[in-house]
Write a structure and sequence with these properties.
alpha+beta
Length: about 850
């Protein structure tokens, strides 16, 4: 028989979940069991003892209790510790306990003399195995600290009585709570709104994430808490029951269903993680889906069904809590509205700062009028009134196959793409369901879950974020984006860019080669829109080739003439190049908030500039370039510098700035004198480049990256230039120099590299298998077609310590020399591209097979 005063075991909690209980029931039952345990420990009696009269009954999820006559409790004299009261706060106070949640407690004492009594109770609580988080305050200290720390003030708002002196709790309710809820309300509202914005930003700023945070993400449980806290202060809501009752009946059932599901999902996530965890990551999605009742169907996997259901519920939380938050903050924001009616078209007017329909009340909106309303939103910047928004959703089905080809509807849509509020308008269209009705090819992407490396969002959300980022380029003041800012503001036909971006991933609905499939599907759309031939051609090019520039920049060397020639041939002209550059930025920056980096910006810009020169017929004559360089050099004999340049390969001159050529000349001279030389430079793109010159030897690159990795440096790029005189210049770019820098780092690296490379001393490389489950398999590809001079090897694998060293060691053991390497490690995944040679040429068939087999064995064994 289970004791009601003991902490439930994990097997018992699992049985609760498997019995089909909802989230509210699960968390309340668990909280009540902890209540019994905490009370017994507070009074220092057996969990099921009955000798003492309890002060009051717990009032469900109310977040508080009544005492004395208001509770109707027995009048028998209280026999517990006097002048000390114990309250539950945080998730425990809200009765939202998940299996590994902290038990947050607050001791309220009449004065500081009660600390010894509180400590005795704490010792018993700690000895019980509960994860206790506690505070000890007097009523006066509660008020003082509430206005010094927003977290303390917030915790007091949801404090719930557990045990102790009821008179002291009466004092808390009559003195502390009124002060906390009534004073400095404007400051509290402002800080909570700022906190909410920062939390959403750090969690991805979207409901539609592939790995959502059930608690802190947008549309998560913390949004419910924020709305409750604000309502306690601004609307004087007493407890959770009152908070729920305050939601309009039309939305209350939807809200409570969503709230219950999120609590249940979090409860299950804790159990499957066996720890405190609120991130619904790939690692746990496959096991959570069936436990939450989502099985595979003919069309969707259980995981996809679960995530789609999660998005619906999270979206409900987001929308309803946003309305509550707006209602709570309205009294503290001065807004002047003009409620006169200003007619702007035959069917629409502006009143109170919102667009309204001027048709008689109840008159239906045609498809043309609905699309016109959105066009006016884009033109005026005015949001829809609640009445107009309801009317649009009511008449949504009027947007049908016939409406999609009506000139009025099409022209209104195209006007949106030419306006200054493209993202805001398309977002409203998507949220209301209009965009998917008007463009069913895009509607097929709604909440579409596709697991792709580094991607954070569903396909539709990724597209809208890309459109937002492209539009922001028009007004950005970021210096790192000034080139793109100039290009977009000097480019005509912005509607072509926005439409291309809207359609760029529509092929993903087919589940196969999405560039080609998207190209086919966009033809039907452009036919319906009756666009001019030149616009159709540009949009078709961009949809079909939207990953071409990122693939080339991240996987190939932009200073390789062969790479530039192939890319330029595919692009065709400078206008296409400009458009593709902008689309590529928007697409990459919408993968996840951290995916666009200064390093990737540098690679794209380098490719763009080299290709632009090629398309414009600008070439670099080697002899002329060398003469020009020699004429500007001071302090170096021109014949000596000319001899150094003649020793270097052609691609070196294309990639090295003038000042670096001189620095490399000096580096090589030091290597000729001492056998080894190293130089460390900070680059304009934020990276630090480590240049090493020494005699070329087999496995040199492997030793170099192995040693640098052992020092904790994150390698993102490697370039190798072999001189004709037998020396080599290896350039390794690292991204985390500032993170690990210390006063002796440069000397430590210099001496360590010399010992490892010049003196052949051994070094230790830490290897550790990746423990997190990845949804992505190992992928290895060898390309012997793209280049006439080198073979290109692409390796994709879950990252782990020592991975780059192991790959480079395999290449060395197979007799393969590395010409260049692109190293990319993000989100626990490694994507490395190597340009390699075997002897003086590309790898042969037999050598390729041996190499691929050796790489596969190394990557597979590293995961075990």
């Amino acid at each position: 028989m289970t004791k009601t005063g003991t902490k439930p075991s994990l097997s018992e909690l699992n049985s609760w979940l498997d019995s089909g209980q909802g989230g509210v029931a699960l968390t309340q039952q668990y909280s009540l069991r902890i209540d019994c345990m905490v009370r017994a420990l507070f009074y220092n009696e057996p969990a099921e003892g009955k000798g003492r009269v309890r002060p009051a009954q717990i009032d469900g999820r109310t977040g508080g209790r009544s005492v004395g006559r208001r509770s109707g409790r027995s009048s028998r004299k209280y026999q517990g510790p006097h002048n000390l009261t114990l309250l539950a706060t945080g998730g425990y106070g809200r009765m939202e306990m998940a299996p590994f949640s902290d038990v947050d407690l607050l001791f309220i004492a009449a004065d500081r003399k009660e600390t010894e009594a509180a400590e005795q109770i704490l010792y018993r609580l700690w000895d019980s195995g509960l994860d206790i988080s506690h505070a000890f305050r007097t009523p006066e200290e509660c008020i003082e600290e509430a206005f010094a720390d927003i977290r303390t003030r917030t915790s007091l708002l949801e404090a719930r009585y557990l045990a102790g002196d009821p008179v002291l709790y009466d004092l808390f309710c009559s003195k502390v709570l009124p002060a906390v809820t009534s004073r400095r309300q404007r400051d509290f509202v402002r800080e909570k709104l700022l906190e909410k914005g920062k939390r959403h930003h750090s969690a991805g700023n979207s409901v539609f994430l592939l790995e959502p945070n059930v608690k802190d993400g947008e549309g998560g449980l913390r949004d419910v808490h924020t709305a409750f806290w604000l309502s306690k202060v601004a609307l004087k809501t007493r407890d959770y029951a009152g908070f729920f009752e305050g939601i309009p009946p039309l939305f209350r059932r939807r809200f409570l269903s969503a709230y219950d599901f999120l609590l249940r999902a979090r409860f299950c996530l804790h159990l499957e993680s066996n720890r405190k965890n609120d991130l619904l990551s790939f690692e746990f999605q496959r096991v959570l889906a069936p436990r939450l009742g989502f099985l595979d169907s003919k069309k969707f996997s259980g995981v996809e069904r679960m995530l789609r259901y999660y998005y619906l519920k999270s979206r409900a939380i987001q929308e309803i809590t946003a309305d509550i938050v707006a209602q709570c903050s309205r009294p503290y924001v001065t807004v002047t509205k003009d409620f006169s009616i200003r007619k702007i078209t035959e069917d629409f007017s502006v009143s109170g700062g919102s667009l309204i329909a001027t048709a008689p009340k109840g008159a239906p909106l045609t498809a043309g009028k609905i699309m016109e309303a959105f066009s006016l939103m884009a033109r005026t910047g005015k949001r829809f009134s609640p009445g107009l928004r309801r009317a649009i959703r009511t008449d949504l089905l009027r947007i049908n196959r016939k409406a999609r080809i009506q000139p009025r509807s099409v022209n209104s849509f195209l006007e949106i793409l030419k306006g200054g509020r493209v993202y805001d308008t398309l977002r409203e269209m998507h949220d209301s369901g209009v965009l998917g009705r008007f463009l069913p090819e895009f509607g097929a992407l709604r909440m579409l879950v596709i697991h792709e490396p580094y991607h954070l969002y569903t396909v539709d959300e990724h597209t809208l974020v890309a459109i937002r980022n492209l539009e922001l380029l028009r007004t950005t003041s970021y210096k790192s984006l000034e080139d793109l800012h100039h290009i977009i503001n000097s480019t005509g036909q912005l509607d072509v860019l926005f439409l291309s971006l809207l359609l760029h991933d529509i092929g993903k609905a087919a589940g196969r080669n999405h560039e080609e499939e998207g190209y086919k599907r966009q033809k039907d759309i452009l036919e319906r829109f009756n666009l001019a031939a030149d616009k159709r051609s540009r949009i078709g090019f961009l949809v079909r080739n939207h990953i071409l520039m990122s693939e080339t920049a991240l996987k190939r060397e932009a200073h390789d003439p062969e790479v530039i020639a192939r890319f330029a041939e595919a692009v065709g002209d400078p206008e296409n190049l400009n458009a593709l550059y902008l689309i590529t930025y928007a697409d990459m920056s919408a993968v996840n908030p951290g995916f666009w980096s200064s390093w990737k910006a540098y690679l794209l810009k380098e490719l763009y500039l080299h290709t632009l020169d090629y398309l414009n017929g600008v070439t670099r004559d080697r002899k002329e370039y060398v003469r020009d360089l020699l004429s500007t050099v001071r302090g170096i004999e021109p014949p000596l510098l000319a001899a150094f340049i003649s020793e270097m390969p052609e691609r070196y001159l294309l990639s090295a700035p003038r000042e670096k050529i001189i620095d490399d000349y000096r580096l090589v001279n030091r290597a000729l004198e001492g056998g080894f030389a190293v130089r460390i430079d900070k680059r304009a793109d934020g990276l630090v480049e480590i240049s090493v010159s020494t005699a070329d030897s087999h496995g040199l690159f492997s030793k170099l990256v192995g040693f640098l990795s052992s020092k904790g440096l994150n390698i993102v790029n490697g370039r190798i230039f072999t001189c004709r005189n037998g020396l080599v210049i290896d350039k390794i770019a690292v991204s985390n120099w500032q993170d690990i820098w210390w006063d002796g780092l440069v000397l430590d690296l210099t001496e360590g590299l010399k010992a490892v490379i010049a003196e052949n001393r051994p070094f230790h490389v830490v290897r550790r298998p990746e423990t997190n489950v990845s949804p992505y398999d190992i992928f290895i590809e060898l390309d012997n077609e793209t280049s006439d001079e080198v073979s290109i090897i692409e390796v994709f694998s879950p990252d782990r310590l020592g991975l780059l060293y192991d790959i480079s060691l395999v290449l060395a053991k197979q007799g393969v020399s590395i010409s260049s390497a692109r190293i990319n490690t993000e989100s626990g995944l490694a994507q490395d591209i190597f340009s390699v040679r075997s002897g003086n040429g590309k790898l042969g068939a037999a050598g390729s097979e041996r190499l691929l087999s050796a790489l596969w064995m190394t990557l597979r064994d590293g995961q075990e």
